[in-house]
């Protein structure tokens, strides 16, 4: 048996915290050595945090990152370390996997396939590499590559396997969306079967702006079998033994030209770090979360890291007694703790007594302080001052929006005074259709459920109650028809199609770019399709001014979807 002990360091780096990221890696190198690991792998761009975006244009930033890379490399004694880092060479910048051994840098891989779709724009920063290194570690040949490289059926891993690699180590910064973990595992199993090799896939965890990373690092065997898996949304050091003798020979007759176009193999013999006395490890295979638990964990993780990494003392939320603010508050409490969350209930003359009762019950159940600040007097003052200007005009949406904007002002005042971030409560269905008020309920620093369709909001609220075994979110909130309470007897359905009808159209139009004809052919109602398309198209200017929020769908409003604000195209 030629056994290789792998340590996959599933960490939560912070963009720009170069020294802090390095400290975390140094601690895990020590832990991996104590566990008898031969090789430890860190995620993509772990030194800088991911994605560093235009920080990569700053020469000082790249210099400081290099200092920390060399600091981590110096600690790689008795172990091989694969470290995600930017690498500047002769005026070009590469997304790299640096390999350290015996306290120094021994080899470096430059990512070859640079994604430039969805949330990714790596072609803006990086040049593609050409060299495909194969390392010999304790007699086992190991190929190293980065993220997108493993998604190609014939790619750098293929070049390395043909050159003798028995284990492929792939380092990643792979963002989460619903079902992404299952997609990755199926792809990696297929790659392992096709190549007859072990694949070790390490991913980061944590939130960065609107992105959240779910971890779920994996080791899969030559038959596509799952060997080990780290938990979702938690830091972990996944240790796994692989028997290189199980790798199957691979030939790719007819693919030679494709392989040469990808890159050229190179070989590096690294120091022998094996411990002969090591007993085989029992592999760890963490359970996957169910689909709703997975989404909820992503929202909690993204909210926690955005608030904490940004340095806010806590959060304040406008609690209305409705489902959106209830779910947002529950997520905030799970992310930050009840002591760090404050709620404002801000009734007007249109606020029902049930709303106060429900908000009070929710806040009490979550242990959150709730302050009641009536806005009737403020609204009357606004209306009175505007009366000469508005003389002869009937009340309309203007007066409705004034209520939302007064509430936004109060929340922002608390933010300024106490250092709290305002968490907005709008969902994806509202963001899509423009059913939200600029400088009102859209005012804030982070939009927790911005990428959560309204129908999913209800599912997540029920999930939160089921997971707690009690009514964290009162059933009366979940069962009540949605209303903004800005005029008498108002319901969302006065302005929008029913959410059960609206959300599938939004998914088709926003996330899948379906045409009107395609949606009608799928059985969607023409009047709903036409109204939805009109609302989405005319609301881009609002969305561009909305705060960021956690991405949980395949295509969010933000990095994923970039449309011109001034745009007369109407299909």
Write out key terms for the chains shown.
20 strands, 3 domains, 7-stranded mixed sheet, single chain, alpha/beta, Rossmann fold
Detailed description of the structure:
The protein has 571 residues and is of the alpha/beta class. It has 3 domains: 3-269, Nitrilase/N-carbamoyl-D-aminoacid amidohydrolase (4-Layer Sandwich); 291-492 and 539-543, HUPs (Rossmann fold, 3-Layer(aba) Sandwich), CATH 3.40.50.620; 497-538. It is 37% helix and 20% strand. It has 17 helices and 20 strands. α3 links the parallel β7 and β8 (167-172). α1 (18-34) packs parallel to α2 (59-74). It is elongated, with a radius of gyration of 26 Å. It starts with a strand and ends in a 28-residue tail after the last helix. The mean pLDDT is 93.
Proportion in β-strands:
15-25%
Which CATH architecture of the largest domain would you pick?
4-Layer Sandwich
Shape: elongated
**Strand order across the largest sheet:** 13-12-9-8-7-6-15
Major sheet characteristics? 7 strands, mixed
Kindly provide the radius of gyration, computed on alpha-carbon positions and rounded to a whole number of angstroms: 26 Å
Low-confidence stretches: none
CATH top level label of the largest domain: Alpha Beta
Give average pLDDT, whole number: 93
Count of individual domains: 3
Enter the CATH topology name of the largest domain: Nitrilase/N-carbamoyl-D-aminoacid amidohydrolase
Query: Which range best describes the helical content: under 10%, 10-25%, 25-40%, 40-55%, 55-70% or over 70%?
Result: 25-40%
Specify the number of helices: 17
Structural class: alpha/beta
Distance between the termini: 63 Å
The fourth-level CATH homologous superfamily of the largest domain is Carbon-nitrogen hydrolase
- Tally the beta strands: 20
